[in-house]
TrEMBL record:
Molecular-function GO terms, alphabetical: C-C chemokine binding; C-C chemokine receptor activity
Name this protein carries in UniProt: G-protein coupled receptors family 1 profile domain-containing protein
Biased composition (Low complexity): 328-342
This protein's record includes keyword Glycoprotein: yes
Homology family: Belongs to the G-protein coupled receptor 1 family.
Mode of membrane association: Multi-pass membrane protein
């Protein structure tokens, strides 16, 4: 199974070679430049990083889903976005073991599983950044238009989020599945779509909303305002720090494919390696989301403690009830035995 910087080649069965970064999936002249050094690097680096992201992503996003389920009645609009985001990230991290195996020894799973992993990957690719854009819009309405934005925020969080996030994310998997057989043409098409929907559109929305928020908060006083301003800056820096390096490398490499930038073999191989590194960094953002959008809030910490305490008590009660049931059963059997013996 090949993944060419944001897409899986569903025709992996036609080619026994496997390179998680997809260098063999580029045009023929680029294939002449690939060497075993990048493949050896990917076999060690990618499974290690993917395993680390998998563990952090499962724990962090799983806790967010648990807490949001626990506080179902008291969820705010922002909490609803956090739940969407954690579900999307959980779906994504579940695919990372497949990426790890593919990077280490090649793709040995069935064709239908490759397509399923591909769909999950692409849906998360778009849904997560679009949800981040929706969160920035929600924060903008809540802070800049605090007095009359409740209705608009509710509409965004409960209705428009499905049409504006999940529907486009699912629909954008269709052309990739259909046209992936035409590797040369669709690789370029997918990359431009990937850059546009995955970075430029949500990035512009996030940047504009948070810049306005910072301007608004900078004229306010008080500890809570300063804390909100600090959190806002962290959110912006984290998003662009994770995603921007990957998209810069992807854009340069795409210009090289198109012949707009001349890349010799050494530069081409170096670029492929940096795409692997920066893409792994971008994936790490799904581990940061629970920290940035949930753990920074005091309310979430309290809810997490209550949820974990509730789960722990529930488990203890179940174990205790089973023990009591077992003792009761033993007691009944003993009484029955005594009765018959008498």
């Amino acid at each position: 199974m090949h993944k060419f910087s944001g897409a899986i080649d569903i025709n992996f069965m036609e080619d026994n070679s496997s390179d998680i970064n997809g260098s063999d999936d580029y045009f023929d002249f680029q294939g002449l430049c690939t060497n075993d050094e990048n493949k050896d690097f990917n076999r060690i680096f990618l499974p290690t990083v993917y395993s680390f992201i998998f563990l952090l992503g499962i724990i962090g996003n799983g806790l967010v889903v648990l807490v949001m389920g626990y506080q179902k009645k008291s969820r705010t609009m922002t909490d609803k976005y956090r739940l969407h985001l954690s579900v999307a990230d959980l779906l994504f991290v579940f695919t990372l073991p497949f990426w790890s195996v593919d990077a280490a020894i090649g793709w040995y799973f069935k064709d239908f599983l490759c397509k399923a992993v591909h769909v999950i990957y692409t849906v998360n690719l778009y849904s997560s950044v679009l949800i981040l854009a929706f969160i920035s819009l929600d924060r903008y309405l809540a802070i800049v238009h605090a007095t009359n934005s409740q209705g608009s925020r509710k509409l965004l969080a409960e209705k428009i989020v499905y049409a504006g996030v999940w529907l486009p994310a699912i629909l954008l998997t269709v052309p990739d599945l259909i046209f992936a057989k035409n590797r040369q043409n669709w690789t370029i098409g997918f990359r431009f779509l990937h850059i546009m929907v995955g970075l430029l559109l949500p990035g512009i929305i996030i940047l504009i909303c948070y810049c306005v928020i910072i301007s608004k908060l900078s004229h306010s006083k008080g500890h809570q305002k300063r804390k909100a301003l600090k959190t806002t800056v962290i959110l912006i820096v984290a998003f662009f720090a994770c995603w921007l390096p990957y998209y810069i490398c992807l854009t340069i490499d795409t210009f090289g494919v198109l012949g707009l930038v001349r890349l010799d073999c050494q530069t081409d191989n170096t670029m492929h390696k940096w795409i692997s590194i920066t893409e792994a960094l971008a994936f790490f953002h799904c581990c940061l989301n629970p920290i940035l959008y949930a753990f920074l809030g005091a309310k979430f910490k309290t809810s997490a403690q209550n949820a974990l305490t509730s789960v722990s008590r529930g488990s203890s009660l179940k174990i205790l009830s089973k023990k009591r049931a077992g003792l009761s059963s033993v007691s009944t059997e003993s009484e029955s035995s005594s009765f018959h013996s008498s």
